[in-house]
Amino acid sequence: MTRILITGMSGAGKTTLLNELARRGHETVDTDYDGWVTADGAWDEARMAQLLADHLDVVVSGTVENQGGFYDRFEHVVLLSAPVEVLIERVTRRTNNPYGKTPEQQAKIATYVRTVEPLLRRGATLELDGRQSVADLADTVERLLD
């Protein structure tokens, strides 16, 4: 039984890592998609509680204001981090998510690295460098799942 949360700033590589884990046969949920986040930017708490009650082995990704309320239901909280310059470069060229394309959004990302990422770091059980290859990151997360 292992539930893992992958968290981090936009552009850290959460979706790419989740896609690789899904390709390897693991159950994954990317909360950036499919209505997991409510209009106020928080997880739909009832839906997340149900997911975690129903799935003993799942890797979830997301970064929302109320995620800390679920930390006790995850065996591992993995912070995926990268320097702000890397984050901005990635969000600029990605095609699967429109967030981060404008100068205003990029400024928010830089602000969140200074203000939110330290909070995520305090709640994390492990921090991984998002500049590592996706294969190496997935290998590390798979070891946590074993």
Please tell me about this protein's structure.
This protein is an alpha/beta fold. It has one domain: 3-Layer(aba) Sandwich (Rossmann fold). The chain is 42% helix and 16% strand. It has helices at residues 14-23, 45-54, 84-93, 103-115, 117-123, 134-145; strands at 2-7, 28-30, 57-61, 76-81, 126-129. Helix 2 (45-54) links the parallel strand 2 (28-30) and strand 3 (57-61).
- Gyration radius from CA atoms, angstroms: 14 Å
What assembly state would you assign to the polypeptide chains in this entry? single chain
Please tally the β strands and state the result: 5
Q: Report mean pLDDT, rounded to a whole number.
A: 95
How would you sum up this structure in a few lines?
42% of the residues lie in helices and 16% in strands. By secondary structure, the chain is an alpha/beta fold. It has a 5-stranded parallel β-sheet with strand order 2-3-1-4-5, sandwiched between helices.
Fill in the keyword field for this structure.
42% helix, five-stranded parallel beta sheet
Helix-strand layout with pairing:
Blueprint: E1 2-7, H1 14-23, E2 28-30, H2 45-54, E3 57-61, E4 76-81, H3 84-93, H4 103-115, H5 117-123, E5 126-129, H6 134-145
Parallel strand pairs: 1-3, 1-4, 2-3, 4-5
